[in-house]
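User: Predict the complex with 2-oxoglutaric acid.
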Amino acid sequence: MLSKFINSLKRPRARPEADEAAEIGQLGVLHLKPFWARTLAKRNGVFVETTDRDWRFDNLLLNGLGLPLEETLQYLLGSAPSFAEFESWVLSKHNGQLDPPQIDRLNSLFSGQPYPLALQQSLQELEAEPDVLSAEDLAFWAEHGYVIVRGAISKEQARATENAVWEALGMDPQNPATWYQKRIGKGIMMEFYHHPTLQANRQSRRIHKAFAQLWGTADLWKTTDRTSFNPPETTALPFQGPHLHWDLSLEPPFHFGTQGLLYLCDTPAEQGAFCCVPGFHRTLETWLASLPPGTDPRRVNLDAQAVPIAAEAGDFVIWHHMLPHGSSPNRGHYPRIVQYLNMYPVNFQETMAWL
Ligand SMILES: O=C(O)CCC(=O)C(=O)O
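Assistant: Here is the predicted structure with 2-oxoglutaric acid placed in the model:
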């Protein structure tokens, strides 16, 4: 399986530097071996300095290879595989076939070389495509900090993905008794990443174009994120969160950033919808500065200002990462099921100091 894949790579590609080439394994992906070595060294209690650049490259590597961070770390830390075993594991997540252009893209990035021509062309094509977000959508985004991309994927594709979630859970959509039979994961979050329908949704050009409009470039990296299952709450299983929170450091400086989720079933406001505090991206900094000294901003209750965002199966919600956001209690009659997905450019800057 591996040799078939390696043969498929025998074509012109971005050339790694000589010292980096020595680090290349069977898959031909730069930075993969250093990532594996550093992670295992840390597992074994060896102090390894990880720079901001390493952290950024690790994220790009994993997202470029369609690997969720949590699942990859669980595997590396739990199994301590050899590098060859790790590479086979990576392949197994893609049914034995990585996408050669995606490897070219990663290697161009890690070796500081321009993208291959075909990739440059496909990005230009996306940039030239008609806008997905209208002028009204963009004005709404600027004011409220979120936007709904209607019909980001088809209803059929949403239904197929929803069915895949039910199948993975081993639950029956028509039989509520089955919805509470086992733990989903961490709260509503489900470690379900690699089903073909989930992969297909990550390829949605409508979603990509919407993110491209917000970031001002089509050259974006996609996350391989989780799904979630938020059933109607019961006395035995009250709402499990996530409650309103931020996923970014509250230490200035603040940089532009996005987050997103895809509704896989129709989600009225009361059915555990995503919620956020609209407009807070514009006031976060002054709000933080106005808090009495010693206040933990993450403990201030903003629930009264939160608004549930209802939408239909196949709609995609993008929100500014400076908005407090979370899920909401499901007081409807059917679970809320979503897939998370974000996109960001290579120069996306996170403030590393966590506050
Ligand atoms: O599932 C939701 O509605 C909220 C998701 C969330 O809080 C997050 O992605 O950080």
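The pocket of 2-oxoglutaric acid is lined by residues 228, 242, 247, 259, 261, 274, 325-327, 338, 340 (CB under 6 Å).
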